[in-house]
Structures are given as structure tokens and as C-alpha cells.
Amino acid sequence: MSAETAVAAENPAVFDLADPVTHADSDLSGLWRYLRDCEPVYRHSETVHGPEFWVITRHADVQAVYKDNIRFTSERGNLLTTLLRGGDTAAGKMLAVTDGPRQRELRAVLLKAFSPRVLERVSGQVRRSTRRAVRAAVRRGAFDFAGEVADRIPMTTICDLLGVPEADRPHLLRLNKSALSSDDADETFSDAWAARNEILMYFAELAELRRENPEDDVISALATGSIGNRALTVHEIIFNCYSLVIGGDETARLSMCTAVEALSEHKDQWRALREGTVARETAVEEVLRWATPAMHFGRVALEDVVLHDRTVAAGDIVTVWNCSANRDERVFDRPEAFDLARQPNKHVTFGFGPHFCLGSYLARVEMSALLGALAEFAAEIDVAGPVTRVRSNFLSGPSRLPVAVLPTAAADELDLAP
Ligand code: HEM
């Protein structure tokens, strides 16, 4: 346990969980353990970032809050940052911050766009483009895994799905990076706000084009979609495109970087993956539990709710911490062990209940493609320089990950089999 976490175990109040720096600079595992054991429903004090909020850390309680969208609403925001600022302008329009019958209707429109036929096509593209990206990088021997590989896979996937033209993708990726987290300590809240607005405006223009000339993509499905006999409004369309591009890119990208970092640190697990002694799909689940790229989500209580011995009052902000729930000793045997063969693995990386991640299938396909390509093309992989981490109270993982890789013979073959 680090010096900081030892202090936290006696006095959790020294940590400001709303502050991005707290998560970037400290190892909070001791704090989470203390809260799970001693204060599972913890009242976080007011900070410069906003008012008080509840912190829920045990797996069972996290699932209970996620599941209960009658008493805990997402309509005032589902991230600490928006909740602390008093609400989310996309409420009632964007799936993730809509509840009740409206959420079910919107989810049905989006699920229709994510049909098995479209997902199968996109999955095939993911496997091919991941093999290509990993092989090309591995042949160089030393590279930044975040910039050379992880940056490309999820963004390509979600843009293929949405129908974002190739030429616009690098710009969208840059905007995405500043919208929720920041690699740069000098970036401000207004930079993030400007980036979010630019993404929305981009999709407004693209949706207009697709409404006139629909193609076989998700933007067209939304632009021409309807609920009952009413067409989706421009706000519903752009907020949901925004949600997909943000949800589909950052989390998956960061989980890939954490996966590579963990594999380079746990050589026995890397060998198990390479030698195929662990099933790929089982390994994918452990990597997702280990990475937990979306650390928390949030809700507002609609009525007084007693949790353990604490009363959460109507109107209170409640945050559920996936990163703690995924290390809960009550559910996971040796939770601090990175064990690719772990089964069962009931992680909450994709949430739980009515808002369960819409992109979980794609995220799993991406991670499986990455692990497969690494096992095929990399004989050894090591972190080879200082790692930079995102600064965020929501997202976690490396934004820069220098690695040194020894290529396999397959990586050096002249032609890449399809
Ligand atoms: C919802 C995590 C990838 C789209 C969620 C939620 C979590 C999550 C925890 C629940 C939010 C809540 O309850 O408030 C992740 C992680 C991913 C990932 C860790 C990658 C490793 C994706 C991808 C897409 C996506 C690839 C899109 C293709 C969405 C959407 C929702 C959602 C639209 C809202 C669902 C609803 O409210 O009904 N995600 N996600 N996510 N995710 Fe993901």
C-alpha cells in the first residue's frame, strides 16, 4: 500500500474524488478497500468542483443502484462532472441520460441500427484492421501503443458503424480526446465544452446529408428513424451520435492500453495467452475487469432510500464506482490478481440493468481481436518508457504507452493472410 492510500484508509476525506488529479496521481486501491469494508455508502464532502455526493463501492450495491432506475434517475446526468454542475442538457434525448418508456423506445431504435447483420460486417472489419495495425506496429519494434494501435481500432470501428467519412476521422478523434479527459494539464473545462459542441455540430451536418441520401449506417438509421409515428428530432439524432462516438472510442481505447500494460507486467499471463492455454473469450473478460476504463457512473435519487445504515435523500447525487466493485473481495476471489483464466467473472465494466452498455458486444470483439493479433505477431512485449495517464475523474488508463516488441516469424512474413 502506498503512503497516500495508507493515509486514506484512516481518513478518506483527504481525497477529492471529483478532482481528475486525484485519480491520475494516486493509487486509490487502499481507499476503495477501506470504503468497501467500513463505509460502503460514503458521503463525499463538498469540494471546489461542486456539492456533496454519495460514493457507493461494493459490487452488490453498485448493481442495485444501476438496476433501480425508478428510484435512481439518469435524467439529471450520469457522470459526476455533469451531475455536480446541475444537470445534462441531453436529458430525455440521449439514451444514456433518459429513463422510463422513452429510454426503452430510443434503445429500440438504436438496437435496430445495431442489427446482427451490421455487427457481423463491422466485426469482420475490426478483426482485419486490428491484425493490420498490430502487425505494422510490431514490425517497427518500438512504438507508442496508444498512438499507433489503440487510437485507431475503436475509432475506426465506431466510424464504420456510424458512417463517418474517412477524411473526417482524425479531426473527430482529436475532439474526442479533449471532450471527456485531457492528456494536457493546461486544457480547461471550456476546451472540453468547445470540443463537445463541435462534435454535436459535426453530426448535425452529417445527419442532414444522410436524411437526404441515406446509406447503410447508423447515422442514416437515426436520421430516418422514428419513435411511434414521429421522426427523431435533430437533437435526439446528434446527442445519440455523440454518445456512440464518445462511448465507443475512449473506453475501448483505454482498456486496450491497460491490457497491454498488464500483459507486459504479468509474464505468466502473457505466456498463457500466447500458448493458448487460456480461452480468448475468458481472457477478454479479465482484461475488461482489470482495466475498468469507465471508473464511475452517477444517478440522482428521486426519493429517500436507505442503503445499509445511511439515508440517501431525494435529490442527492449518487455515484457508483465500477473500479471498486470490480475489486470487491465479496465477489472476486483474489481480486488483486490479474488472472486471465478467471471464472466466473461478473464484472460491472459495462454497467448493469436498463442502461447496460449498448456497445459491449463490439467492445468485446475489439478486445478479442487485439489479444488475438498480439498473440500472433508479438513474441515478447514490454513497457519501454514513461507511461502518461489520462487526467479524468471518469476515465482511467494510459494515453501514452511506449512499448518494445519482439516480432514473431508471422509478423515478418511478406504477405498478410486475410
Ligand atoms: C452505456 C461502459 C464501449 C455505447 C455504458 C455503461 C457503461 C459502459 C458502464 C452504462 C452507463 C450507465 O449506466 O449510466 C463501456 C465500456 C466500453 C464501452 C467500459 C469499452 C470497453 C461502448 C461502445 C459503444 C458504447 C463500443 C458503442 C458502439 C454505449 C451506449 C450506452 C452505454 C450508447 C448507453 C446505453 C443506455 O443508456 O441504454 N457503457 N462502454 N459503449 N455504452 Fe458503453
UniProtKB/TrEMBL annotation:
| Source organism phylogeny | Bacteria, Bacillati, Actinomycetota, Actinomycetes, Pseudonocardiales
Q: Which CDD domains match?
A: CYP142-like (cd11033)
**Organism of derivation:** Amycolatopsis halotolerans
- What are the record keywords, sorted? Heme, Iron, Metal-binding, Monooxygenase, Oxidoreductase
Identify its protein family. Answer: Belongs to the cytochrome P450 family.
Q: State if Metal-binding is listed as a keyword.
A: yes
Which protein is depicted? Cytochrome P450
Annotated PROSITE patterns: CYTOCHROME_P450
Query: Iron among the record's keywords?
Result: yes
